[in-house]
């Protein structure tokens, strides 16, 4: 038996649901309106055979009498109103309890769910190597980085340049290949690195994955370190200077420990998602490394989230702060 529709009790719960679930059917209703209650039952009954409820998609009930802020944010003027949202963006809406119109919306829901399942199964739009699994409902959007405009400061020129960070190939430190070009970057004069990456489209970032695979010779003072303290900045038109990056308040401060790195040397860093909406660029400032060395090493970077038209978070900001803000 498929679980019933989720009753939304607060704007924060609604915001959380939109972030956690790729496809949401919102049923705006009023308990005093029999037609709106009937519309809810229609989709609940007609999706009993549709797999993925609670993982790929969810049906939510929103009482407009109690949650007027959500009603106003989405311009709901009457009930029943059934809205289909994908990645937080409205893709279809049915007004009234017309069974034919609701059946059309049900069919569109099924197509969206099947597409999302296929996307999840493939992992991303490309078969590139990743050092960690993708968060549910999100894809690898690293290919949206504009490599020609990206800039990496304080890099040792004997190691790879900025392009190797976004390579789709498995790092040589894991593949066992030796003797070729160094497919990683190391800092030069000290342990700090500054990476500026503009994007080809507006992104919503969910997770930053960093792979760092320094050699394990503890007796060598020249062995580079993994990043420890990182500062992230969004929507900068160009790279920052080191002094500027030190002084500016970051969009997010990150402190990594040994336990954050998996067996493939990758740390998956969850981002404060509400702060990483409508992003056209990202600056990654490695402040220091974890250890007593003089250099920091990074083998790969992966950006996980969504590309294309960004979610209209303005609606959410009007109706309540997300958890953790």
Describe this structure as you would to a colleague:
- The chain has 325 residues and is α+β, with helices and mostly antiparallel strands.
- It folds into 2 domains: 6-122, 3-Layer(aba) Sandwich (Glutaredoxin); 139-307, Sandwich (Jelly Rolls), CATH 2.60.120.470.
- Helix content is 23%, strand content 29%.
- The protein contains 8 helices and 15 strands.
- It has helices at 11-20, 34-46, 68-73, 99-122, 162-165, 172-175, 242-247, 313-319, and strands at 6-7, 23-29, 57-63, 81-86, 89-95, 139-140, 151-153, 185-186, 193-211, 227-234, 252-255, 266-270, 279-289, 297-298, 300-307.
- Strands 6, 7, 9, 10, 11, 12, 13 and 15 form an 8-stranded antiparallel sheet that branches.
- Helix 2 packs across helix 4 (99-122).
- Residues 123-127, 309-314 and 316-325 have low confidence and may be disordered.
- This is PITH domain-containing protein.
- Belongs to the thioredoxin family.
- It holds the Pfam family Thioredoxin.
- Residues 130-323 form the PITH domain.
- Keywords: Disulfide bond.
């Amino acid at each position: 038996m498929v679980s019933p529709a989720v009753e939304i009790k607060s704007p924060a719960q609604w915001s959380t649901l939109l972030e956690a679930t790729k496809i949401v059917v919102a049923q705006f209703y009023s308990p005093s309106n029999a037609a709106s209650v009937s519309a809810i039952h229609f989709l609940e009954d007609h999706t009993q055979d549709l797999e993925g409820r609670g993982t790929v998609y969810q049906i939510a009930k929103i009482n407009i009498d109690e949650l007027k802020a959500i009603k106003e944010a989405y311009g709901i003027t009457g009930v029943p109103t059934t809205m289909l949202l994908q990645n937080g963006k409205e893709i279809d809406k049915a007004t009234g309890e017309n069974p034919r119109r609701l059946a059309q919306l049900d069919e569109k829901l099924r197509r969206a769910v099947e597409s999302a399942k296929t996307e999840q199964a493939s992992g991303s739009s490309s078969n590139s190597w990743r050092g960690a699994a993708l968060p549910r409902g999100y894809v690898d959007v690293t290919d949206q980085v504009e490599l020609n405009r990206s800039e990496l400061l304080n890099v040792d020129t004997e190691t790879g340049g900025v392009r190797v960070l976004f390579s789709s190939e498995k790092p040589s430190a894991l593949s066992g290949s030796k003797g070729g070009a160094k497919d990683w970057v190391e800092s030069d004069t000290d342990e700090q690195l500054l990476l500026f990456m503009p994007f080809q489209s507006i992104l919503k970032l969910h997770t930053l994955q960093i792979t760092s695979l320094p050699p394990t010779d503890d007796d060598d003072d020249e062995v580079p370190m993994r990043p420890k303290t990182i500062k992230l900045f969004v929507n900068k038109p160009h790279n920052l200077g080191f002094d500027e990056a030190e002084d500016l308040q970051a969009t997010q401060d990150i402190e990594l420990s040994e336990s954050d790195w998996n067996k493939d040397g990758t740390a998956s860093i969850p981002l404060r998602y509400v702060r990483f909406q409508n992003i056209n660029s990202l600056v990654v400032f490695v402040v220091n490394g974890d250890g007593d060395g003089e250099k920091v090493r990074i083998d790969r970077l992966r950006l996980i989230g969504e590309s294309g038209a960004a979610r209209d978070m303005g609606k959410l900001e009007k109706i309540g702060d997300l958890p953790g803000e």
